Amino acid sequence: MKIFLDTANLESIKKFNDMGLLDGITTNPSLMSKEGGDPKSAMKEITKIIKGDVSLEVVSTDFSGMIEEGKRLREFGSNVVVKVPMTPDGLKACKSLSSEGIPVNVTLVFSSNQALLAAKSGAKYVSPFIGRLDDIGQDGMNLIREIKEIFSNYDFGTQILVASVRHPMHVVDAAKIGADVVTLPPGVLDKMLGHPLTTIGLDNFLNDWEKLKSSNPDSKI
Ligand code: G3P
Questions:
Q1: Interatomic CA distance for residues 133 and 130, integer angstroms
Q2: Catalytic site residue from 15, 51, 71, 83
């Protein structure tokens, strides 16, 4: 399963990229707005730091606006994936950009039928938002299960990109289902890294080493 980071925060992107954890990045207008500053320079910088796919989202809602923005975004780097909303114009833009060889991520997907239509339009990625479904009392992970089952019956080539991930158990469940990608807020990736027994174990190792060192002051490793 590929891991993308769901952020426009350059510090977090560099931090996790240096650990070799990142296969790509997803952004959206809210994430760009959260960071402030000049969005265009941030977008360019992200495409330079990350070798893998970087989803940058259009803000037009009409077909021709999405095409113009999508092409401009794509100039930021050959790894740019144009993110379009799951709307009739979004799917038309998906078909058009995909047929020109520009990869598309269809976002704001909340049903398996929407995912099916995005795949039919030629999307490289389909982004179901599981956390937002959980928020309204629906089972977000069940949507991933359904899409996985539907896609496995056919040969779309569209990857399931699990979005709106809220906690580490979402990641475990998505991996068990066999989702292609999860996109994680930095906080979730931080939580996945840590375990109290790792911290306790390391403290014990270091304390024991100090005891040994006190009787062997000249020994170093
Ligand atoms: O990238 C879009 C998606 O991950 C948004 O998540 O937490 O705003 O529902 P959230």
A1: 5
A2: 83
The structural domains of the chain, ordered by start, are 2-190 (3.20.20.70)
pLDDT, tens digit, for every residue of 6-39?
A: 999 999 999 999 999 999 999 999 999 999 999 9
AA identity, residue 86: M
CA 81 to chain centre: 12
Ligand 1 lined by 27 (C-beta under 6 Å) = no
Q: Report the pLDDT value the prediction gives residue 21, as an integer from 0 to 100.
A: 98
128 with 115: CB under 8 angstroms? yes
- Beta strand 24-26 with 125-128: parallel, antiparallel or unpaired? unpaired
Atom of ligand 1 nearest to the CA of 6: 1
User: In angstroms, what is the C-alpha Rg of the chain?
Assistant: 21
CB of 164 within 6 A of ligand 1: the answer is yes
pTM for the whole structure: 0.95
Measured CA to CA, the distance from residue 58 to residue 32 in angstroms comes to: 12
Question: Sign of torsion, CA 172 175 176 177?
Answer: positive
